[in-house]
Amino acid sequence: MLKIVYHEDYLTDYFTSAAESPLRVKAIHGRLQDHFLTVAPEAASVEDILRVHTREHLESVQREGPEVYRTALLSAGGALGAARMAMEGTPTFAVIRPPGHHAKRSSYSGFCFFNNIAVAVTSLLEAGSIRRAVIIDFDMHHGDGTEVIFRENPAVDFIEVRARSRERYLGLLELKLRWLGPTDIIAVSAGFDLYVRDWGGLLETDDFHYLGYIIRQAAENKTGCRCFALLEGGYFVNDLGKNALAFCLGLSGEPPSVTCGEPDDDAGIWPEP
Question: Which of 148, 178, 193, 210 could bond 198 through an S-S bridge, CB–CB 3.0 to 4.6 Å?
C-alpha cells in the first residue's frame, strides 16, 4: 500500500513567489490523507545536505532566514524518508515543500533550495543500499539542477519527456520506461504543472493516474516495487489535490480507466519539432 510523507511545518509561510504557497501542500494532503497512511519525516542533517551541495550553498540558504532553512531541511528529510520506505518495497509519495529539482550543487532557483531528490538518491548510493537509480521528472519545467548534479554519474539515469500532445507525451514516457536497463530504484520528481488548466496546458487528471500506473509497473518489473515520488511543481491549486490523488492511485497499483497509444520504437525519444 502506498504511503505519503507530510509534515505540518511544510505550511510555514515564507515567501519566494505567490505561486509557490503553502496552499499547494495543504490542498494535496487534504485530498490524500483519507486514502493513504501519512508518515511524518525528520529534518535532513547538515551531513545529508553536504553529500550533494557545497557548504557555501548551505550557508547561503541559511541566510535566506530561519523559516526557509528549517523548512528546506525538513523537505530534504521528507525525501530521505520516502526513499527509505521505498527500499522496503513500499511506494511512497512525499508531499514536501519547498520543491528541489532546480537546485544545483552551489546555487538555487525556481523556488528550490536543496535538491531533494538528489539528496535522497545520493544517500542511498553512498550507503551502498543501491548501485543504480533512475530519476523520472515529469514537471513541465526542466529539472536542470538534478540533471547537472548527476550528469557525470553513471549510476544514475535521468529521464524527461518533451512533447506537444498528451498522447505523444504519455507514449514516449511509456517507451522510455520499456527501455529501462537494470536499476535498483525509481525516483520521481512529480510536477503537476503540465495539467491542462495549469501553466503547461497538456495533461488531463486521468493522465496523471496513467503516469503513476506505468511508473509503478516499471518499478515492479525492474526493482521489486522500489519507487518513490517527490512533489515539485503544480500551481493550479483548485485541482492540485485531485491530480495528485490520481497519480498516487496509479502509483499504488490501481489500473487507470484510460490508456494511450504507443509510438513506434523508431519514432525516437526527442521533442517534436
Answer: 193
